[in-house]
Amino acid sequence: MAHRISLKIYYEDTDAGGVVYYGNFLRYLERARTEFLLDYGINVAEWHNRGLFFVVTHVDIHYKKPARLGETIDITTEVAEMKNASILLKNLVSRDGVILVEAFVSFACIDRDGRPKRLPEELKGLSTSIHK
């Protein structure tokens, strides 16, 4: 089962036509990823203080339909692939069951010097815990 959050679209999210500006979806995906990790006991700020950082390394995003001012969208997040130092997440943004955006976001674990680090053991359980 995928993790899900809901977000309301505000005026600040849209262009002059009331359509969500495409770049704002990256912010929404970041928020969904942070909530996903928090719900599985991974506090990004705590890991940051320990010298481990999670950085986005690649985004593949397909905009299918617009989201508009005043609507509420749902964002699902699930692990698509996990490697030693990186994770690929699949996100779907939908409204009333209609998919608006599909995205795959890769992020890696690095240290303060920018060197790749193995994922913490706490993260390795994500791939099995979300598919129960």
Task: Describe this entry's structure for a reader.
The protein is of the alpha+beta class and 132 residues long. It has one domain (3-129): Roll (Thiol Ester Dehydrase, Chain A), CATH 3.10.129. It is built from 4 helices and 5 strands. The chain has a 5-stranded antiparallel sheet. A hairpin with a 2-residue loop joins strand 4 and strand 5. The protein is elongated. The model has no long low-confidence stretch (mean pLDDT 92).
Quickly describe the structure.
The chain has 132 residues and is α+β, with helices and mostly antiparallel strands. The protein contains four helices and five strands, in the order βααββββαα. The chain has one domain (3-129): Roll (Thiol Ester Dehydrase, Chain A).
Blueprint (SSEs and pairs):
Elements: E1 3-8, H1 24-39, H2 44-49, E2 53-63, E3 72-82, E4 86-95, E5 98-110, H3 121-124, H4 126-129
Antiparallel strand pairs: 1-3, 2-5, 3-4, 4-5
